[in-house]
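Reproducibility note. Readers wishing to regenerate the assembly model reported in the main text can use the exact inputs given here. Chain order matters: entities are listed in the order in which they were concatenated for prediction.
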Amino acid sequence: MTPAATVDAVTVAYRRAASRRVTVMLVALAALLLGVLLDAATGPALLPLGAVAGSVLGYPSDSAVQAIVWSIRLPVALTAVSVGAALGLSGAIMQTILNNPLASSYTLGISAGAGFGAALVIVLGASLPVPEAYAIPLNAMLFAGVACAGVYLIGGARAATAEGLVLAGIALLFLFQALTALLQMIASPESLQQVVFWLFGSLQKSTWPKLWVMLAVLGACTPFLVRDVWGLTALKLGDARASALGVNVRSLRIRSFVLISGLTGVAVAFVGTIGFVGLVAPHVARMLIGEDQRGFLPASAFMGAVLLSLASVASKTIAPGAIFPIGIVTSLIGVPFFIWMVLRTRRAYW
Amino acid sequence: MSINVQGLSVHYGTRIVLQDINLYAGTGRVLGIVGPNGSGKSTLIKAVAGLLKASGRINFNGSEARPKSVGYMPQDLQAPMALTVIEVVLLGRIAQLRLRVSAEDLEAVRQVLQLLGMEALAGRYLSELSGGQRQMVFLAQSLVSQPTVLLLDEPISALDICHQLEVLEVVRAMTLERGLCTLMVLHDLNAAARYADDVALLREGCLVACGDPVDVLTVENIATGFDVEAEALTCLDGTGVLIPRRPVRMLTVA
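Running the prediction on these inputs yields the following structure tokens for the assembly.
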């Protein structure tokens, strides 16, 4: 092979991978835009897609459509996007730093911690001194942080190895589930119903202010992820190898846990516990473009956003006139899709 | 670059893994590290790489400051299945990588892949490679940063004979041409005799012998270090070959 041809072989392979990443992102973006439009068009009053698109783009055809879209539907649709992105991203970071395909905020107790925090407010009224509307979200966020800190402190008591952290997360998942069940046992029927509904997850509590908070947290996490993108990729080689390459593994894990805590906390705080998205979105991203974190992290966020957006549409169309809890729908449509993807894939990803 | 190890000891809890190791690896020379399983070879490499807490002194060109460009290839390679060869090799230059990979970084990857004859695999995922090919990828990663110190822990353990010889030739040539200091753990004593300028023989965390391969890899030292009776033969071209004959202590089948 001539030197010129060799230059082509490596550069072409690199550019091919880069263009694949861009293609996947563009397709995901198109799917996301379609999902948002469908989400805004779907509900008790089914709106024409064209009218919704016109309203979103600033060309309203009807004041009723304008009011429904901007006051009710769009906050819900965009919350689905931002929560899905936050859960997909936090799952991707977690699977990377723990080097475990089963890791997600849901499977390692962070969401369960948030659920317990919410249940504390609903059942016992125990919360920080804040306005009532924010008591549940704030307590949920606080306990998501407590769970994250617990995973790190317990799992890292001797050495913060991936295995130790995963075991600590699983232990905390059972602990917080048990504590929430205990609260449910002593709750009044009204409180019990409220806790159960909160644990199912619902996008219907979305408002513009809550959406801005979620977008702000997502935006605040981005520079840190950009900074650590190669360090996170190096962690895929194992702790020892990453250390040998000059990565401060301990410090990287702590930073990542803070980001996971923020992303999961804010997502769960406003819409309740939604499982599956944080677990599956990274797997779909990995299958499509691999684990170079420069593409993997944004792709996981995109996949999470698309998945939750479509789930939001499904939650309103499964039974006319009723809205299914989003947490149930994500699993109902996500599990068959995920199994199909796993079965049709011949290459090993993990 | 040269490495001078003085009084190096490593403990895992109360267990002594390396005890009072003294050795010197010179510029442009390969130091082969041999010994039975559990003798502390990998621990020695890790200690020199700065991955373990150790007592004693390790000087690099007379200074205790570890050079930034250390190429380290561990024994237990965790293969990230969903990374491509280019991405894994690029990580060897992590200190200078930015979000957008520079032409210089890509050129360094191209050169090292060309050196190891792996350009055709550049875009492949590690999940699509054999164990030996993966080992070559990690060797490429340890070479891509143009290190002054090269620490290789069993770099040929998964390779066929042809690739073993290719890798050993490349390592030796690079060490000589670029004035590197290379420490290489090997299980193949004949490979160590042929490709290492000096050999250190370890047993149970202690240094049995260190020096010229001819002086270290003797029938007596093999018996002491490995509990194996060996025979030294001379080939027609004059090179010596060690033939392990039988263990000193025979296992009995019940």
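We highlight two features of this model. Chain B has eight helices and eleven strands. The mean pLDDT of chain B is 91.
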